[in-house]
Design a protein that fits this description.
Number of strands: 24
Strand order of the largest sheet: 5-4-3-6-2-1-7-8
CATH topology of the largest domain: Heat Shock Protein 90
CATH architecture of the largest domain: 2-Layer Sandwich
Shape: globular
Radius of gyration: 32 Å
CATH superfamily of the largest domain: Histidine kinase-like ATPase, C-terminal domain
Distance between the termini: 81 Å
Number of helices: 19
Structural class: alpha+beta
Length: about 625
Amino acid sequence: MSDVIKLLPDHIANQIAAGEVIQRPASVVKEMVENAIDAGATKVDVVIKDAGKTLIQIVDNGKGMSTFDARMCFERHATSKVSKAEDLFTLTTKGFRGEALASVAAIAHVTLKTKLENDQVGNLLQIEGSKITKQEAIVCPTGSSFEVKNLFYNVPARRNFLKSDSIEFRHILDDFERIALAHPEVFFTLRNNDTEIYNLPSAVLKKRVVDILGKSSNEKLVPIDESTEIVEIVGFVGKPEFAKKKRGEQFFFVNDRFFKDSFFNHAITKAFDGLIQPKTFPSYFLYLTIDPQKIDVNVHPTKTEIKFEDDRLIYPIILSSIRQALGKYNIAPTLDFNRESSFDIPFSMNSQIPVEPKIRVNENYNPFNTTTAYPSSSSSSSSSSQPSFTKAIKAEGFGNNEINQSDWTDFYAIKEDVPEINNQEIEFEGEVNINKEFIVRGNYLITSCKSGLMVIHHRRAVERIVYDRLMNLFISNPISSQKLLFPYEKEVSSAEKSEWMNNSKMLERLGFETTFNELNMEINAIPSVIQEENINDCLDNILDNISFREIDKGDIAHILINSIARSASQKKNIVLNNQASEVLIEELFQCPEHTFTPSGKSIIQTISMDELTNKF
């Protein structure tokens, strides 16, 4: 049998290696910006076109490279940061494997311009698919400039798997923000398609965090500062009342290197236990400084996972430092162990002898006398005609008639009229008949059905109805909007502004009219189904969805309309009477899917007679 095992050619080996190191355009930005920082750069400019598919340019004012180093940096496993195995355990640089530039050069057209400070001229190299096509001396400033064009040009399958421009640029923003937060001493700029996204001058740590998150975040941060023999922890956590519904603003750094760790994240979640609402997540920016010999950064190709030797000891330090900071700034409740544990008694009653209370009984009460069972200040014919059961319900506060049918129709500004109420019973799944009497308690509407009781979450029902109406209208026409008397201003971060602008055409079709100034977004018109008091909640919901999620083009309309429908259902002080409840249920049952909201939450639950019997 002939020999079948052979060495792969270098260009094929480089393309295979590139699949591990360079997964998308954001990987190129991350690796090259980190190389610029390792080169001692104090200013780094990043230019992006078409989410990095057409151009990624990284310009720095670092040390630069000689003619020999300029050629060697594109060879596999060529590095200036590691010379022996022991160096892997004392790393202070971002890169060390010597794979990034070789991987990029294997799958793109790369142009490098670089010059050392003391040299008169610099060097130009052009590489296509790992092959150097041009090298010459040129005049250029000190430092390095990398231009990466046509990423994955020779690996079309990889290029076809890239997401939309908005999603790919979101990944670039994520990696850029992580590096900028880790190095506040470096001046960073980021431009996308000739639009400046970030301009971050060198600053102290808190200023850098505020520059990225927005000016309003300055009042939301609680400082952390803890020093032990094992680890030093500095940074900030967000105040509990500003916890978000998405895991967007959560950053761990160790020795100025971003990493992810679910174990340490659990420590922070535990520190906020009881201080934040369920299904919300606190913001944090924690910087750990630890002996490099006690961590291993070489456990993952993207270097976002780090192995800690003393992770079981670091966990309680993180937990206690956050709790101490929250207590120090009077954010978390504290216990006073010196306080007397007995009940507090008013001073005037300290000398009084406790007296047993007496029970008074109305001797004239007659349970068979219906006129005295529920006394009323009026004896009109309308009140006397109501069944005693209904009076008892109203006496308990189940269904105050604070609004009428016209209040209910406020939700349907997108509809010209509300269907007339007929006397037919509404059928649900061929089995349930809705009666004309309803009990409304909080968000729940209760009525009887053939099998027992039906409970409807009326706010979710409104969400489903508005969503279906908006989606049907959106397919053929823009959603009607209402002009605001005064523009509503909302402060947004650069990333949020970029995401909003990327989806501006879709948002305009949904009824939003917006303009931007340096710091704020101004809302001039909103969809007609949203009440003015719910504008901020709606904007937060939309920004959370488009900023912290990967959304395909086909899903963006669904996500945005769902956010609008959810905000439209949050009208305050909704109390339904029988007529409005009947309109709501009839509208709900006309929806093709009336048992769940667009986000999958239950709208209707039935309680059978057997379940009721078992409870008694």
